[in-house]
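Box 3.1 A note on notation
Throughout this textbook, protein chains are presented in two layers. The first layer is the amino acid sequence; the second is a token string describing backbone geometry. Keep the layers aligned when reading.
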Amino acid sequence: MEPFRIHILGCGSALPTLKHYPTSQIIELRGKAFMIDCGEGAQIQFRRSRIHFGKINAIFISHLHGDHCFGLLGLLSTFGMLGRTSSLKVYAPKEYESLFKQQLDFFMTGMEYKIEFIPVDTKVSEIIYEDKSLTVETIPLQHRVPCCGFLFREKATLPHIRRDMIDYYEIPVSQINNIKLGKDWITSDGKVIDNSQLVTPAETPRSYAYCSDTKYMPELYKKIQDVTVLYHESTYASESEDRAKLYYHSTAKQAALVAKAANVGKLLLGHYSARYNCEAVLLNEAKAVFPHSFLTQEGDVVEI
């Protein structure tokens, strides 16, 4: 199975601390890499991840709060100084387009690679990126500014043809792909070999939903049903639920309620308020509702 990994570069919220960096992640899938959000210090954490800067295919910005995008221009500048020549797409809320282009004109003159801004409508759910191995779909969220999450879905692969069956029935190479597509095999004496005997099933496609920042959305589960891994902001504990509601954030318990309703495989917690020196209270609260809940920390690599 090809690697599908989440690298946690930062899992803190807006107020900087000595413990956590602002929000940023890198997704690795089938030899490609994508960045989600880019808070301050993201490129330092990027170096610590030991992922080559040149592997980034696209950057996705969920919303225009500084802890999710203040590191973007610095990272793009570093790409240029390192000699990047391949083009890069930046997906971000459409409200950012004018300012982003002004920033590029002011700070990024002379760079030898093209940066293409792709405006995102945060109010609709739609596929904004697609290649031969995955799609990326927006997840409308409810925050104080236009905001969306991102759903990474691996595309289904073909079944695997059994090597022993190829040898036993002397199946030519020219017919292997037809069998993967579901064809039976007919031997030289006319015997039909059912396709199910010739192949083993393909791996189940994996998926990752990234939801930050948002107030509690009881109906959110419908957009992320059965995803393999869910990252959902968990800024506060339940004792601060009124504060979460005021600032359009979620508690750890609310994140777990979404995960449970969506029947996800695993819940990752993050975007912790600076008030918590220890996030165990958030983890315990989430686990009481959804046992497969986990805290994220800088440097974590989550295998999907």
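The mean pLDDT is 94. DSSP finds ten helices and 18 strands in the chain.
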